[in-house]
């Protein structure tokens, strides 16, 4: 029931956000399509394609490093494939299953280690958040005043506060103990023991400073590559936005896209349109948004094709993953 309500909420938020984009841009959609057809330098778009591919490769390296701490020996190809599976589940699969649940499930099938696989995926995601939020936070601190709006400030500072809380929670048992009273909301001893097991697995990463710091460093590199990807898309549309501004704008879009939705659908487009309309004409900002969607959904569709050739979705696996998603969500 909880999973069903969560899925409905995501669908509604995505639908409302898409409606907002189309409502705000009514009358300019055909102009945006004309820009895509006649004014786009596709050489830059091809460069962005390969840059995005490189960014996904770097994330696979990070995932492999995180897995190693839990003695899960997955090769680069397997980690890269897991990333593709996650993209497909996030954006295309009409079910309750999220990309992280799918990655954790298939990592468990590969390794036979359930808790270790789940905590590795969770920590891999957290490492990505560290880089995204820190880049946006540092960018706001050193940027010129024209980058500051209350919406951007609240979004970035709020996300940074949540990040600091999560890091403190998983790094200090004493700090985590302050929230032990939340156990009253966990149904049954079985779930309490399982959550404690997950916490212990994540907490133990504090004894592996090298891999953790390495994963965070890799996260910064991957985010820089993704920022370059979006910058090249903007160049393909003839935009003249300074490169450094993308180090604030793109992480903010990423943070907003974490809101409950169908893989960021709608909220990603609305936030991109809102932020970049300050630096280019609205119809060109919409064209920029559509090209980003073309890139993301193109890769996700490609991920689905690879997934199909490697066996595809089996009903039993989907039921198992949906059960996991329901319990988590």
Order of helices and strands: HHHHHHHHHHHHHH
Strand content: under 5%
Distance between the termini: 10 Å
Average of the residue pLDDT scores: 83
Radius of gyration: 20 Å
What about the largest sheet? none
DSSP E strands, number? 0
User: Helix tally?
Assistant: 14
Please render the helix and strand layout as text.
Blueprint: H1 2-24, H2 29-38, H3 42-69, H4 76-91, H5 99-111, H6 114-142, H7 150-171, H8 173-177, H9 188-203, H10 209-236, H11 246-256, H12 267-276, H13 282-309, H14 315-328
Helix pairs in contact: 1-12, 2-13, 3-4, 3-6, 3-10, 4-5, 4-13, 5-6, 6-7, 6-9, 6-10, 6-11, 10-11, 11-12, 12-13
Characterization of this structure:
Helix 6 packs across helix 9. The mean pLDDT is 83. By secondary structure, this protein is an all-alpha fold. The radius of gyration is 20 Å and the shape is globular. It has one domain (2-16, 46-328). The protein contains 14 helices and no strands. 77% of the residues lie in helices and 0% in strands.
